[in-house]
C-alpha cells in the first residue's frame, strides 16, 4: 500500500480508549456507538470493526460497507455473517479466536467442579441458612475421564488445566493418532461411553449442527455430564431435554443454548440437572477489550505493510 494513501476505518467507540493513542496518521477513523452509526459510517470504509450483540444488525452493517477490504472482529463465531459474499468481495476477515480462551477454559473447570461438588445445593442451603450435614456432591475430578471436542485455543488451554487436576483427557481433532488420546471425526462416537465429561468447544458450522443428538446422548454414561461452551446449535436441544428428564445422562452445563436469550418459560430453566449460565463464560473477565485492541493494532501494521493478517477466518470453512 502506498505510504501516502489514507485509509478509512470505522471502529467501535467502546474501544476508542484502547485504540486511539496508537492509531497511525494514515488512518482516518470514524467512531460508531450505535447501530445507526455503524450502518452509516461503515459506508466507504476500507477497514471495519462492526461487532454488535444484535447479529442481524451487524450483518446489515457489514453488507452496507461495500468498500471493505478488511473486517476485524473480536467475536469468534462468524456464522451469522455473509461469509461467502465476503469471500466473493475479496474481504479479509479476522476474528477473536482465542481472545477469551483463558476465561472460557476456567469457566468449564468451574462448571465441572460445581457439578462434581454439588455446589449449587450448597449455595441454596446458605440462602436458606441451613447447615448441611453432608456434602451434596462427592465426585472427584482426579481420575475421571474427559472428552474434549474441538482443539483450538479453548480446547488446548482446557486440556492443560484438566491435566493439572489429574483428569484423563482425550481430544477430538481433524485427524486422530495412534495414541488413542487424539481421536478423529469418525472415531469419537464409538467411545462416548468411556467418558465422565463430554465438553464441546467446536465452531458452529453446518458440519457441527446437532453434533450431539439423541444417539450420542444415548451412548453416553448415565452419570456423564455434557458441557457446552461452543454454540447452542451444536446440540439437538429437544433431545437433550428428553435425556435430562429421563436422567439417561447425569447433567448438562450449558453456557450456550438455542435460542438466546432462553425464553423464560423454557423447560431447561426448571431442570435440576441443567445448569444454564447465559453465555457468560467469555464475559467473565476484564481484559477482552485490551486483548482485542492489541490484536487489531498488531494486524494494522501488517495491513499497511501488505502482509498476511493473523487470525484470519477461512471463509469457505466458516471459522
Keywords:
single chain, 319 residues, alpha/beta, Rossmann fold, 2 domains, seven-stranded parallel beta sheet, five-stranded parallel beta sheet, 10 helices, 15% strand, elongated
Set out the fold topology.
Elements: E1 7-12, H1 16-19, E2 27-32, H2 35-41, E3 47-49, H3 55-64, E4 70-72, H4 83-89, E5 92-94, H5 101-116, H6 119-128, E6 145-149, H7 153-164, E7 168-172, E8 182-183, E9 197-200, H8 214-219, E10 225-228, H9 237-246, E11 251-254, E12 274-276, H10 288-305
Parallel strand pairs: 1-2, 1-3, 3-4, 4-5, 6-7, 6-9, 7-8, 9-10, 10-11, 11-12
Helix pairs in contact: 2-3, 5-7
Textual characterization of the structure:
- By secondary structure, the protein is an alpha/beta fold.
- The chain has 2 domains: 7-99 and 286-305, 3-Layer(aba) Sandwich (Rossmann fold), CATH 3.40.50; 101-283, Rossmann fold.
- It has 10 helices and 12 strands.
- A 7-stranded parallel beta sheet has the order 8-7-6-9-10-11-12, covered by helices on one side.
- Helix 7 links the parallel strand 6 and strand 7 (168-172).
- The longest helix has 18 residues, at 288-305.
Amino acid at each position: 500500500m502506498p505510504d501516502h494513501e489514507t485509509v478509512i476505518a470505522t471502529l467501535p467507540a467502546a474501544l476508542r480508549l484502547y485504540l486511539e493513542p496508537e492509531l497511525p496518521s494514515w488512518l482516518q477513523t470514524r467512531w460508531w456507538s450505535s447501530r445507526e452509526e455503524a450502518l452509516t459510517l461503515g459506508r466507504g470504509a476500507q477497514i471495519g470493526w462492526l461487532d454488535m450483540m444484535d447479529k442481524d444488525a451487524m450483518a446489515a452493517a457489514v453488507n452496507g460497507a461495500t468498500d471493505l477490504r478488511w473486517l476485524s472482529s473480536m467475536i469468534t463465531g462468524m456464522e451469522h455473517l455473509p461469509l461467502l459474499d465476503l469471500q466473493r468481495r475479496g474481504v479479509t476477515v479476522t476474528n477473536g479466536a482465542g481472545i477469551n480462551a483463558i476465561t472460557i477454559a476456567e469457566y468449564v473447570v468451574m462448571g465441572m467442579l460445581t457439578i462434581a461438588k454439588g455446589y449449587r445445593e450448597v449455595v441454596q442451603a446458605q440462602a436458606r441458612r441451613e447447615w448441611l450435614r453432608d456434602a451434596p456432591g462427592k465426585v472427584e475430578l482426579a481420575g475421571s475421564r474427559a472428552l474434549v471436542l474441538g482443539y483450538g485455543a479453548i480446547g488446548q488451554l482446557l486440556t492443560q488445566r484438566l491435566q493439572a487436576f489429574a483428569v484423563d483427557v482425550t481430544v477430538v481433532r481433524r485427524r486422530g493418532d495412534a495414541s488413542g488420546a487424539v481421536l478423529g471425526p469418525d472415531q469419537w462416537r464409538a467411545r462416548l461411553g468411556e467418558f465422565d465429561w463430554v465438553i464441546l468447544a467446536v465452531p458452529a458450522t453446518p458440519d457441527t449442527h446437532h453434533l450431539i443428538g439423541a444417539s450420542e446422548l444415548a451412548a453416553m454414561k448415565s452419570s456423564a455430564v455434557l458441557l457446552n461452551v461452543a454454540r447452542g446449535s451444536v446440540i439437538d436441544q429437544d433431545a437433550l431435554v428428553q435425556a435430562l428428564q429421563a436422567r439417561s445422562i447425569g447433567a448438562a452445563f450449558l453456557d450456550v443454548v438455542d435460542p438466546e436469550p432462553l425464553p423464560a418459560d423454557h423447560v431447561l430453566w426448571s431442570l435440576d440437572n441443567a445448569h444454564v449460565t447465559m453465555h457468560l463464560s467469555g464475559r467473565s473477565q476484564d481484559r477482552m477489550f485490551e486483548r482485542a485492541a492489541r490484536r487489531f493494532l498488531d494486524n494494522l501494521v501488517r495491513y499497511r505493510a501488505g502482509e498476511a493478517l493473523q487470525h484470519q477466518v477461512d471463509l469457505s470453512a466458516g471459522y
